[in-house]
Design goal:
- By secondary structure, the protein is mainly α.
- Helices cover about 55% and strands about 5% of the residues.
- The chain is built from 4 helices and 2 strands.
- Strands 1-2 form a two-stranded antiparallel ribbon.
- A hairpin with an 8-residue loop joins strand 1 and strand 2.
- The longest helix has 24 residues.
Length: about 120
C-alpha cells in the first residue's frame, strides 16, 4: 500500500482561538441583547405593582398543594369549579370560594364601592 498523505492534526492553539472567537461572538450578542428594550407583559406589570397579592396567592397555592386547605364549591351557587377570593391579603389562607361569574361580580362590586 502506498503511503497516504494525511493533513496535519489541528493544533490545540487553533481550537482555543476558535473557541475564544465563538465565546467573544456570544458575549457580543449577549451584550447587544441587554441594550434592546423588551416589552413588559401586563402580567409582569401587575406582579410588580402588587407584591402583597402575589405573596398571598403563593401562600394559598402552597397550602393547597400541601393539603392544608381544600378547594370548596362556589359559596353563591355551588358550582364545583371555584376560585379563591381574598377579601384581605394580609390573611392569605382566609378565602371565599367563588365561581368565575361570582368572583368577577364581587370584584366589580368592590370597585363600585371604592369609587362611589
Amino acid at each position: 500500500m502506498p503511503h497516504e498523505k494525511r493533513s496535519p492534526a489541528p493544533s490545540p492553539a487553533s481550537d482555543n482561538n476558535r473557541a475564544l472567537s465563538e465565546a467573544d461572538t456570544q458575549n457580543a450578542l449577549n451584550q447587544k441583547s441587554v441594550h434592546l428594550a423588551r416589552p413588559v407583559s401586563a402580567q409582569t406589570k401587575w406582579k410588580n405593582a402588587h407584591p402583597k397579592e402575589v405573596w398571598a396567592h403563593q401562600c394559598l397555592r402552597s397550602a393547597l398543594n400541601r393539603g392544608l386547605i381544600i378547594q370548596m364549591p362556589c359559596s353563591q351557587c355551588g358550582d364545583l369549579v371555584a376560585e379563591a377570593h381574598h377579601s384581605d391579603y394580609d390573611r392569605p389562607l382566609d378565602v371565599d370560594w367563588l365561581c368565575r361569574l361570582h368572583h368577577r361580580r364581587e370584584h366589580k362590586r368592590m370597585r363600585c364601592e371604592a369609587t362611589g
